[in-house]
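Hello forum,

I keep getting stuck at the same step: I have a sequence, I want structure tokens, and every attempt I make locally crashes halfway through. Rather than fight my setup again tonight, could one of you with a working pipeline run this one for me? It's a single chain of 369 residues.
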Amino acid sequence: MNTHLGRAAVAVATSAMAVSLTACGSAEDGDGRPGGSGKGDAIKVGLLLPENQTARYEKFDKPLIEKEVAKFTRGKGEVIYANAKQDAAVQSSQVDIMITNKVDVLIIDAVDSKAIAGAVKKAKDAGIPVVAYDRLAEGPIDAYTSFDNEDVGRIQAKALLEALGDKARDGQIVMMNGSVTDPNAKQFKSGAHSVLDGKVNVGKEYDTVEWKPENANTNMTAALTALGKSRIVGVYSANDGMAGGIITALKAAGISDLPPVTGQDAELAGVQRVVAGDQYMTVYKRYAPEAAAAAEMAVALAKGERIDGIINQKVDSPTTKGVPSVLVPGIALTRSNVKSTVVDDGVYTLAEICTDRYRAACEEIGLKP
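Reply #2:
Ran it on my machine without issues. Output:
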């Protein structure tokens, strides 16, 4: 994906989110869905995030959403936070607690998109609007914000094709998709296939249980045995964690000239592997526009105001059609644009990326702490 086009798309999405809420005033949104309490700025926003093992949730999503809620409520709104630590049952209980605490709106990043549906209905029955965050929760949600997941898959696949060049048909690729319990994984997979089908030979393809790097490592080891290490010309990996497990398996098999491996999330370890040349690319997703969209929609819904001026499209979940949504585009991060993406955006410092282990590689591409 062209970086400048990615930046322009982000700017468009961000400007769409910045539409003033003062123009809103109805007690229903654009689809006639009921709004929230009709309160002023002194609202309570329940924020439920899925786990704390991935650095992004505590480091980026939580503080960004808190900052944006404060912005849209003139400092009078309160964010009540809970983390489910990857337990769907715990998250459902947290929704019950939020209902008891009479929050005015919920922002939920579901551990399990299907399992949360009952809790979403409870909130809805209690008159509490629900914004699905990052993952498209099932149940009667009022709004949704995430990244354009099919486009993420297309970005990964296009980068892989570019890296393969004339070798695209010379051998076989391995596809390491995410967990079947995550609706995003299905969309990444669909987007990737829309680009790769007919252009590469897929030797092995896996749906990776719980997105775990160790499961990706096991799958990759099996693929190497089945296909032969000399026949694998590239690996589609749906995220950075799995890419790490895949690359470990490739190196353990004695492969020194690594095939291109994709990723997603721009995790620090993933960015460092990109700098080192072990991982070809990752998809960098700017969390600030996503958090801003969630906060703006949540505040509007809590106040009983319209959100049709905020959204940029509508999506269907398995249970709810035409969900008002804001989808944010991703950016292909390779060795060529580390500085102009994660460094310039303040996600990581050069010192964090260019540790002693990666210092020489950093200098090679013009990164100097």
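The first strand starts at residue 44 and ends at 49. If your local run keeps crashing, start a new thread with the error log.
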